[in-house]
Design goal:
The chain contains 13 helices and four strands. The chain starts with a helix and ends with a helix. The chain has a single domain, classed as Up-down Bundle (A middle domain of Talin 1), CATH 1.20.1420. It is globular and about 45 Å long. The strands form two sheets. The chain has a two-stranded antiparallel ribbon. The chain is mainly alpha-helical. Helix content is 85%, strand content 3%.
Length: 319
Amino acid sequence: MFFFVVLFLVIGVLALYKGADLLVSQSSALAAKMGVSTAVVGLSVVALGGIMPELSIGIAASFGHANDLIIGNAIGSSILKLALVFGVAAIIAPIKIQESTLKHEFPWVLLASVLIYFLAFDLTISRGDAMILILLGIAFQWYSIWHSKKEMQKELGKQKHKRRSRAALKTGRAWVKIVLGLVLIILGAKLFVDSSLALALYFHISELLIGVLVIAIGASIPELVVTLVSAIKHQPGLGIGNIIGSNVMNIHVVVGVAALISPLSIHPDLLIMDFPTLIFTAILVAVLFKSSHRLSRFEGVVLVMGYLLYVVYSIKFWG
């Protein structure tokens, strides 16, 4: 039993690495062929693939009227990705961000954070609110692709851009490998989380600690691995785009679709700490990036420490 658990854990880690490796290399190739930046591939293709498990959970939870699970997942995972994932990635390898991404895409994270707080002020995310969220999610995807193509046209020239676009339409191999990479990452993350959970139970670690550490960190593994591998391969745009895209789409699409199925009631205490924490974290990350267009190791430590403080607060408040 113990041997197989460790074996599945190792397989999960290998699947995560191989999936991220495929995703980063093929996303870069696809971006070049389509005439967009790797950040846009992260914002769209990778982010949409990454939120599929959360979307499935959100839909199932909505039919089961598990409102706290939906909102808690959206807010908690957004804070985790901005603070913990960016923080850990920066500690291992400082992350650089392009001015264009900081100026045109990152504000959508701030918008999503403030908007969900505003919509939740009446303690309900209605179907009307859901439509606003979903439409803005679609607008975010359209704007990201449109703006990137516009920037690439300026750099490459219209004729060269058209040739690259036509080449993208003729090539399906990169898409197949990207999908394969996403599947490996999702399956690898599940194997890692399930095996870690089994090991924790085997060594009699408390369920609370399992929930806070294993499940929370396990849920962020796809984004963490993609961000780390993209930084190591000197393609930080993909990792940054993945975090930005998954955060925006998690709030707009996951919450939006769930609320469209069944309006969500909001616990009033969330308005006091959790929603403001999300907004503060988004602003902090934006300020850190803006100061030098990179996240240093020290700034990564600050983000990780901040997230750990939030976890301690959550355990004391909600435990």
